Structures are given as structure tokens and as C-alpha cells.
Amino acid sequence: MIAAQALPGPRRSPRSIDYLQLAQAPTVLSYGVGVDSTAMLIELVHQGRKPDLVLTADPGAEKPETYAYLEMMREWMARHDIEFHVVRYVTKRFKHHPPYADLAGSLLTNGCLPSIAFGRSSCSLKYKAAPQEAFIKAWGPALEAWARGDKVIRYIGYDAGRRDGQRYAHAATIHDPLFDNRYPLREWRWDRPACEDRIRAAGLPVPPKSSCVFCTAMKIDEVRALPDYWLRMIVLIEARAAPRLRTVEGLWRRATKTRPGRMTDFIREERLLPEAEIDSIIASAPTSLVRFQEMAAHHPLETRPTLETWLQRFHALQIDGDPHEQASHEPVDAHQHRRAA
């Protein structure tokens, strides 16, 4: 029997190699404008691992030098073609109160101190973590990643020091269905001095400590360096909250051997503001603010004067007049006002 032979078919051209193109998980860096996150950003860019997105959350009450550093880093990121956004928590429900734009406005409206003065950290979660997550949840690359079952890689600047080690130990136990949180500084075993060295090696100045000006963590030298605008705001915040305080004395909680419990007392002792001005704020400003709130409550939200209009008069030392005087209804850029202080 003769075996059947396969007939020759048409010749095929060699097939080119197909490479499977896998979508990469998007990367986001939470930039707090401090030493750790600045060093992390610089090194990631140096390694060719530029984040797809960098976010900074602005509570509206950072120190002036922090805002100046942020503007410098904004330019640095633009030169490296990095997408960067500043995000803020936006209050949507004001009840009958004048609208406000930031954490200081919330404290004055509600007559309270930031939660850190009571040993909690909800102000950081609300004004820093929440607006960043809200932005990412509307960001196209994140939505695409989640749709295909991936997570968003989020770079967090916890260094290899002992204090951040405690924060990392807690964070590492939290399961996050949307984010793959990574901590490059700990992988590199960089502590705070190593981060400072990396920033200097890049030809950049080391940033100042980032915190709200009325944070309990503020050091006495940092309070001494504040402009009058924020010194007056501190006195006002403590005076407005004073009737409700039971367990703490003020923004510094309770007195120690090195500082009083109230920042106002330190401002008075150091003569950072004239004593007569401090006395005037304590005696008149809280009552004036409450009268302004009562007046504003009669207006619908669309035409209601904002808290910023009262603050402008307060800083012009016009807090003793009729609350109806100079109550402009024009919107004011509160954040620009803070940065200029």
C-alpha cells in the first residue's frame, strides 16, 4: 500500500511574534509637603518610577512656608511632567450657618477645637484622606483599573524610623479592596535623616514640618514664627470654643512645664500680639460672630453672606460694629487669603 502524501499548500509568510500588552496598575502618591513624601517623590522619579498622579490635600491652614514650598514643588513636578492636583474637602451642608471653606471655618462655626486636641485624628481623615480618595474614585485610570479587577497602587511616605514604624504596623493590618498601599521609604530603609539627605542631593531645600497652624503638634518656635493673621485666628478659635471645653484647656490640651495648655496664653506671654488686641478678641469677637451667624440664618443659602466676609472685618479690627455693616455677599477665595497671610 502506498502511503498518501500531503499535497504542498500555499506558502505562508513567517508570523510575527505577538506580545501580550498587559495594562499596568496606575500609581498615586499622597504628597503631604513634608520631608518623607518629598524624598519619596524625588527618588521614585530618579528610579524611573514616576507616579501617574500626585495629590496634596489642603485643609486651608498650613503654615505660610509650607504653601511656599508647595508652589516650588508644583513647578518641579511640572518640569518632570507629573500630573498634580491640590484637593480640598468641600462642605455641602451648612444648615443655617454662613458657608465656610476650610477647617478653621468649621471650628469657628461650631465653636470647637480640632479633634487632635482631644487625642483623636478625625480632622486629618476628613480634610486630608477623604478628599484624596474622592478625587481618585473619579479618576479615569483608577476606574479602568477597578473595572478589570486591579487595584490602584498608592505610595505612602512612612519612613523607617520608630514612630512611623508604629503607624505602618497599624496600616499594614488594614485590608483595602481598592488600593495596594506601598511604603517605598521602608523598603529602602530610609529614616528621617536619610530623607533629608536625599532632598539636599537633589538640590532642593528641606521642607518645613507640615501641619495646621492650630494643631496640637505645633512647637513653641513654630507659633512664634506665625504671622499676625494666624495668631489672631488662634486666639479667636480658643475664645470661641472656651465655653464648651471641659477636659482640655485649649489647643495645647493641658499645661506642661514648657508651655501652657492654651496657645493664647503663650501668645500673650511672648507678646506676639498686643495685649489689648488679645483682650478685645476674647471679649468681643465670639459674640460678634454669633450675631453674624444669627443674621445670616435669615438669608437663603444662595444669598447668605459667607464666614469669610466676617473674618475680613475681624482681621481689620472691626469686630465691634453692627453685624450688618460691610457684610458683603460676594464670594471670597478663602484659600488664597490664607496663603497670603
What's the architecture of the largest domain, going by CATH?
A: 3-Layer(aba) Sandwich
User: CATH superfamily membership of the largest domain, which one?
Assistant: HUPs
The low-confidence parts are: 1-7, 318-332
* CATH fold-level assignment of the largest domain: Rossmann fold
How many domain regions? 2
Would you tell me the structural class of the helices and strands?
alpha/beta
Mean pLDDT: 88
How big a fraction of the residues is strand?
5-15%
Shape: globular
What is the helical fraction, as a range of percent? 40-55%
Q: How many whole angstroms does the radius of gyration measure? A: 27 Å
Order of helices and strands: EHEHEHHHEHEHHHHHHHH
CATH class of the largest domain: Alpha Beta
Q: How would you sum up the major sheet?
A: 5 strands, parallel
Helix tally? 14
Order of strands, widest sheet: 3-2-1-4-5
Number of strands: 5
Terminal residue distance = 102 Å
Topology:
Blueprint: E1 27-30, H1 35-46, E2 53-57, H2 64-79, E3 84-87, H3 103-110, H4 122-136, H5 140-147, E4 152-155, H6 162-171, E5 179-182, H7 184-187, H8 192-201, H9 220-224, H10 228-241, H11 263-269, H12 275-296, H13 307-315, H14 334-340
Parallel strand pairs: 1-2, 1-4, 2-3, 4-5
Helix pairs in contact: 1-8, 3-10, 10-12
Can you offer a commentary on this structure?
Helix 1 crosses helix 8, helix 3 runs parallel beside helix 10 (228-241) and helix 10 (228-241) crosses helix 12. It is built from 14 helices and 5 strands. The longest helix has 22 residues, at 275-296. By secondary structure, it is α/β, with parallel strands linked by helices. The termini are far apart. The protein has helices at residues 35-46, 64-79, 103-110, 122-136, 140-147, 162-171, 184-187, 192-201, 220-224, 228-241, 263-269, 275-296, 307-315, 334-340, and strands at 27-30, 53-57, 84-87, 152-155, 179-182. The chain folds into 2 domains: 27-99 and 120-201, HUPs (Rossmann fold, 3-Layer(aba) Sandwich); 220-340, no CATH class. The model is unreliable at 1-7 and 318-332 (pLDDT under 50). A 5-stranded parallel sheet has the order 3-2-1-4-5, sandwiched between helices.
